[in-house]
Design goal:
single chain; about 475 residues; alpha+beta; 12 helices; rod-shaped
Length: about 475
């Protein structure tokens, strides 16, 4: 097909009927102008609702036990379920439309549904309503938004009631368990000797303190014993002999006899150089010395193991110069005995504490178990309370709270979409009518040319 020839023929036909096409165009413009002038104005309003969904957490910490935790899930935690889609279905549901229609006092079918647009990658929902009056549209938008949020509040309250019934049963059971555990502890403390863990721990601490003290005193005893033994070894006497010599030195008669004996011995040494053994003066002096020695010997009977001590050493131990040394040794011996007595007393106390701990270990363990049961019951009860409070927050995971970015009816605009569509339709109709007239004229022209060619051919054959 020769398309350029076809287009040329169509243009020629259109030019041939241009007056008709212009008339149709003017008529179309007239209709469009009349529609614009006679059309009743229409309005639309839009408002934006935000659905911020955040995770909520509630935690209770319990010493030596752990923590009770309750979480409220994020409304946007799942990509398959978005609260925006849920809210869109609720907003367009018959329940919301019918309730809004009842408040608006019209039939449900007469209350036009809004157009809802979900903005991707945001928690925003755009609601759009159309109407014939700005005031009527503003009232209907506010009414619809109020009804929509009332339905959401009813859904939240319904979820609270259903959650509350289940959690309240658990809370009642946890309360009973906690009461039983508390009564068990009170009864056990009343009937037993152990009333608290601190009491048993104090016994253990005291027993350990006594063990430490005993160890310290044993170390002190060993040091004292070693020091005293070193001094006794230097004097070559025993502890009993040191005590006996101190008693002898404490007797004034012994001190006088010892001093007199010392003088007589000095005199005897001097006389021995002048007189012979049979001299009466020397004999008398010998008898006096012998008497003094017998007197001292009678006093020394109380000294144990006296035969092991030589006479010079004996006199040295009885001398006044040795008094302070013997006194210090006996003081240390007394301290040594005191330390031994302390160790013995501490050992006795340790034995008593050990027996007491042994006798009450089972009671303390039983009380610890009861307290552990009480802590667990208290944790369960606290967790139930936390769950009860958390459930009030969990409803906002299913039905998040909303925020109005723009108020319903806050902005009213003319809705010119229908006018624009009508204008487009009119001019499309004009185009179709013009094309039909052009094609009709083209067809008629082609037919006339065919008839003229036939008539011309017949005339030629007749000639």
């Amino acid at each position: 097909m020769n398309w350029p020839l076809v287009f040329k023929s169509i243009i020629a036909s259109a030019w041939a009927i241009k007056s008709s096409l212009i008339g149709v165009l003017l008529f179309t413009i007239l209709l469009a102008s009349a529609y614009i002038l006679l059309e009743k104005p229409k309005y639309k309003t839009s408002w934006v609702v935000l659905l911020p969904g955040t995770e909520r957490t509630s935690t209770i910490n319990l010493d030596n036990l752990g923590e009770a935790r309750s979480n409220g899930k994020n409304a946007y935690g799942s990509v398959s379920i978005s609260p925006k889609n849920t809210y869109k279905e609720i907003a367009l549901s018959d329940a919301v439309i019918e309730r809004a229609a009842i408040k608006y006092e019209v039939e449900a079918y007469a209350f036009s549904k809004p157009r809802i647009k979900l903005v991707d990658q945001t928690p925003a929902m755009t609601f759009t309503l159309k109407g014939n009056s700005a005031d009527e549209l503003r009232f209907r938008a506010e009414l619809y938004n109020e009804v929509f949020h009332d339905v959401l509040d009813e859904l939240r309250n319904n979820e609270i009631e259903r959650h509350y019934e289940g959690v309240e049963g658990n809370l009642s059971e946890a309360r009973k368990r906690l009461s039983v555990a508390r009564e068990a502890i009170i009864e056990y403390q009343t009937s037993g000797s152990i009333v608290s863990d601190n009491q048993f721990q104090t016994w253990l601490s005291d027993a350990e303190g006594l063990r430490t003290n005993q160890s310290d005193f044993e170390i002190k005893l060993a040091a004292q014993h070693g020091h005293i033994q070193a001094q006794l070894k230097q004097l070559n006497i025993s502890s009993e002999q040191a005590q006996a010599f101190l008693l002898l030195q404490a007797n004034p008669a012994n001190r006088s006899a010892l001093a007199l004996l010392s003088d007589k011995l000095a005199e005897h040494s001097s006389v021995s150089k002048v007189y012979g053994p049979k001299n009466p003066i020397r004999k008398q002096l010998d008898n006096e010395i012998l008497g003094l020695r017998k007197s001292l010997a009678q006093s020394l009977v109380a000294v144990p193991e006296l035969k092991n001590i030589k006479r010079p050493q004996l006199y040295g131990l009885l001398s006044p110069e040795m008094g302070d040394t013997l006194k210090q040794i006996n003081i240390k011996l007394a301290e040594l005995q005191a330390t031994k007595a302390q160790i013995k007393a501490i050992g006795k106390q340790r034995s008593q504490y050990a027996q007491r701990i042994k006798d009450h270990t089972r009671e303390a363990a039983k009380l610890a178990d009861l307290k552990r049961d009480h802590q667990i019951a208290e944790a369960i009860f606290s967790s139930a309370l936390t769950k009860l409070d958390s459930n009030r927050l969990d409803i906002y995971a299913t039905y998040p709270l909303t925020q109005l970015l723009t108020e319903p009816g806050g902005t009213i605009k003319r809705d010119r979409l229908q006018t624009k569509l009508m204008l487009v339709v009119m001019f499309l109709i004009y185009g179709l009518v013009s094309l039909a007239l052009t094609l009709t004229h083209l067809k008629r022209s082609i037919a006339e040319q065919g008839l003229n060619q036939i008539a011309s051919h017949s005339t030629d054959e007749g000639l």
